[in-house]
Amino acid sequence: MSLRGVLAELRQRGVLKVAAAYAAIGWVALQGLSLLFQSFDAPGWVIKVVTTLVILGFPVACLMSWGFDITPEGVRPISPASKKPGPLPTAGAQVSSIIEASASPSIAVLPFVDMSAEHDQQYLGDGIAEELLNALASIDGLNVAARTSSFSFHGKSVTMSEIGDTLQLGLSADVMLVKQGTTNLEAYNLRLQARPWLTAPHPDTANTAIEKLHRALELDPRYWDAWADLAYIKGYLTSWTGDPVPLLVDAENAASIALYHSPTNVVALLWRAFVSILAMRDAATAAGYYERARQAGVDRSLWAFQKAYCYDGPLGQFDEAIEELREAEFRDPLASSVKGALIEMYLGAGRPAEAVAVAEAVLEQGSTAFDALTNSGRAFVANGDLQCARELLSKAWAITDTDQPSAVLLQFEIDAATGDREDAQRRIDRLLGLKAGDPGISAYVIGEGYKALGDYDQVIAWWTSAVERRETWTLTLMAARNRNHPIIGKDPRFLQLLKRMGLQPAAEKIKGGAVANRV
After folding, report:
1. Of the CATH numbers 3.40.50.1980, 3.90.79.10, 1.25.40.10, 3.40.190.10, which one belongs to the domain with range 183-291?
2. Which residues neighbour 255 within 8 Å (Cβ) at sequence distance 6 or greater?
3. What pLDDT digit, counting tens, does each position of 178-188 carry?
4. Whole-angstrom Cα distance, residue 256 to residue 253?
5. From CA 378, how far away is CA 351, in angstroms rounded?
């Protein structure tokens, strides 16, 4: 048989794909395991044994692919007919055609199973899996399923075809997928224990996460990832206060330390993008940080969520935000945060029917997260289904304090839709009473209450105060939710507020989505 014939036969039987996939996945696994063994101070012979086993498995995998096909019914010998040229009516051929037709390969990283005696080490397995996920996300052309979706397979019995297809990663020998974070195991443990807060933020648990990060940094002050996480948490906490400046200063200090020593730290880059537009009124610089985070291999669902709420929505770039969020939703279909951002962007763009479709998908997933309930409720208000909105608001109030801003904002929207001025005024009075003793009560939320009453002079007055204090709500909600409001969206005073924030109306934007003036 000629060399061309041999190559054709190897390609026909899928040997070349298996060889490439085995080499790439084996190499990635060895990179991750070497980091793990180093963290646990494992003797040198351990990694040598594992490497030897991986190498010995290579010819076995190639021989298996030569003589067997992987089908939905299991592994079967290749029949004589399958050796004939042309397309093969087998599951293997279907998978091959899908790979060749797709724009880029995909992979999902599943969490490790906690097999400790006390079953209290799951956070460690999740951390290791997340390290691998982030490393793979840095490979151009490789679609990596985001954390929420890939971790949903934990504890479930699934087939390989349900998890991912065969990959060709195209890695060069000098690529370092896993960056060294810390050599102190206890510092690593503390950061992993704090990290779940980033995907499930709540003000009541923030202090515990911050304390763990501080302890980690006492053990290893050069743990740049811990500095970045600290910046992210303190920055996110600004969403729950009308006095964000102290938190912004602390977060910026932590992010600056992380970026000075680790310029491609994704979490710190996302923070810097956020603070550039909120505090510095510099949307162009924020765009640069978002691009750097994307190139650094960020989890696209986290990236799209942050960019939609803190950049595209405030600038009125709803179509761009929706496109990015749809891509993130494709990769991370179970992430309610992405769907919540989609609801916001559809409503901002004046497309309530599509917002309702997303809200229904959230509810079908059985999500009981507070923000998922209130975001979905907003969609139903916009579409005229007030009964459903009230039901979702009741569920939200059952799991949190009634003064939680998202719930109050939804109630104000229901009051505006039903003309219930009495309820709106009662809630405004309560907020004013609270603010007298707590300057952290949001001026933006009070302004939304006056919007429900139709008192637009008071709306502008309270929102001006919120903008002056750099309230996070003015960036993430005020601008996007009111650009297309039939009255406020045309009010010159509101448009002037947008300019003060560096967020000109869409018609005044210059090339590339950057904005012209800075304040």
Report:
1. 1.25.40.10
2. 227, 228, 231, 235, 268, 271, 272, 275
3. 566 788 989 99
4. 5
5. 12
Q: What is the pLDDT of residues 105-163, one digit of tens each?
A: 666 666 666 666 676 767 777 777 777 667 767 666 667 766 566 666 565 555 545 54
Amino acid identity, residue 371?
Answer: D
pLDDT digits (tens, 9 = 90+) for 460-516: 999 999 999 999 999 999 999 999 999 999 999 999 999 999 997 544 443 444 433
DSSP letters of 225-246? HHHHHHHHHHHHHGGG-S--HH
- What average pLDDT does this structure show over 54-61? 61
> Whose structure tokens read 């989505």?
513
Whether the pLDDT of residue 243 is over 80: the answer is yes
* 183-291 and 299-400 share one fold: yes
- Neighbouring C-beta atoms of residue 133, cutoff 10 Å: 22
Stronger pLDDT, 406 or 15, i.e. the higher one: 406
Indicate the DSSP class of residue 333. Answer: T
Name the percent of the chain in helix, strand, coil, to the closest 5.
Answer: 70, 0, 30
> What is the predicted pLDDT for the residue at 181?
79
CATH fit for domain 299-400, picks 3.40.50.620, 3.30.300.20, 3.90.1150.10, 1.25.40.10:
1.25.40.10
